[in-house]
Amino acid sequence: MGAVRQVQVTFDCADPERVALFWCEVLGYVVPPPPPGFDSWDAFDRSLPPEHQGSAFACQDPTGAGPRLFFQRVPEGKVVKNRLHLDVRVGTGLAGAERLAALEAESARLSALGARQVRVMPADGVDESCIVMQDVEGNEFCLD
């Protein structure tokens, strides 16, 4: 059996570019270069049939260590809890009040970008506390 070389995480959404740019800010990701022959993603997008314009966008870890994120437009809106979510690790190596302060600071930063804090999940003796958030289109993710 072959080894997995790369992983891409795909999000269904209404506005792929908006959601991708939000996640660039969250994770320090960048927009990849446009396809060969195009000087910008806008130029590439204009080359597509009208029904496909604005239908997809991507971002990637500039170091190449993290997975590529792909955002595709779908006609239906989000109606239930995600079956999969991202955990954004911001409190790694911290404990107690220091960890909670780091989580709250990141929650405030992301809220300024359009995210919404849903709830704080206190430590239960097994798992450490985390903050459940929603991105700009309501997709859940955790700060932990």
From TrEMBL:
<dbReference type="InterPro" id="IPR029068">
    <property type="entry name" value="Glyas_Bleomycin-R_OHBP_Dase"/>
</dbReference>
<keyword id="KW-0456">Lyase</keyword>
<dbReference type="InterPro" id="IPR041581">
    <property type="entry name" value="Glyoxalase_6"/>
</dbReference>
<dbReference type="GO" id="GO:0016829">
    <property type="term" value="F:lyase activity"/>
</dbReference>
<dbReference type="Pfam" id="PF18029">
    <property type="entry name" value="Glyoxalase_6"/>
</dbReference>
<keyword id="KW-0560">Oxidoreductase</keyword>
<dbReference type="GO" id="GO:0051213">
    <property type="term" value="F:dioxygenase activity"/>
</dbReference>
<protein>
    <submittedName>
        <fullName>Catechol 2,3-dioxygenase-like lactoylglutathione lyase family enzyme</fullName>
    </submittedName>
</protein>
<feature type="domain" description="Glyoxalase-like">
    <location>
        <begin position="8"/>
        <end position="143"/>
    </location>
</feature>
<keyword id="KW-0223">Dioxygenase</keyword>
